[in-house]
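[Automated response] Your request has been received and processed.

Submitted sequence:
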Amino acid sequence: MSKSKPGPGGCAARPCWAPMAFAADGPPVRHSEVLFRALTTFDTPMPERLAGITLWLCRQGHVVHYPVRGGKALNVVAAAVKSPWPGEDWSAPADRQEVMAHFSKIHEDLFQVLAVSSPWLKWAAADRGPTAWSRNRVTLVGDAAHAALPYLAQGAAMALEDSVALSLCAQRSDTIAAAFSAYEALRKPRT
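Generated structure:
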């Protein structure tokens, strides 16, 4: 193998190939939720009451909406509980009436947000069972290591927890492989 030439900053690097598959193995585990998403645009300035991140909780599920595109659009995500996914596809178009049927007894402000939002897309809430995410000197953190449902920032939260656990395991282990093995053993019950 030829020597690597120094690159920016004087560091020498050579490519490393890792023929591995992580976290994509096995069938999806479907949950009793369907997620709906719409992106609503505004021709005029966004109403003040919609200008922040808002989370609505109700018996039918929860809805979060927040401004995007510099306040010119509103991202709306609604998670409806006890709504098993009917098919094999991951996503499908949804109409406003379907969304409104799930959230019929809600606050008037939320009703208005859902009523003006369109077009809607729905997708199945699914993740995967725990798999191995460390091999020798390679490991993963966050939702790269263990699938998380796509809301409530669970992938980011798990990445933060993983980082702390990985740091502690690295301090207490003699080798990188041992640290990664200890990290996975410590974190797997949490996933």
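Summary generated for your ticket: The mean pLDDT is 80. The helical segments are 96-102, 108-116, 154-172, 176-187.
If you did not submit this request, please reply to this message.
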